[in-house]
Design goal:
about 80 residues, mainly alpha, 2 helices
Amino acid sequence: MTAADRDPGLQPERTRLAWRRTTLSATVVALLAVRQALHGGATPAGLIAVSLSALAWLGFLVVAHRRMVRMEAARP
């Protein structure tokens, strides 16, 4: 494969899809953490764990979204 045959749009697309897969995985982990924390009932420790898990998940979503937007802006 020569440089002329290479599609410069494929690498950003693969990276964007990787961020989407990672975001989906983080969502599943956060939901499982909520389920586990609230399994025996809503205790104060469980609610704190749910809150921290939700905060970490939202932080990850913000980072992933910003990365995808920046990549789209830098696309050739």
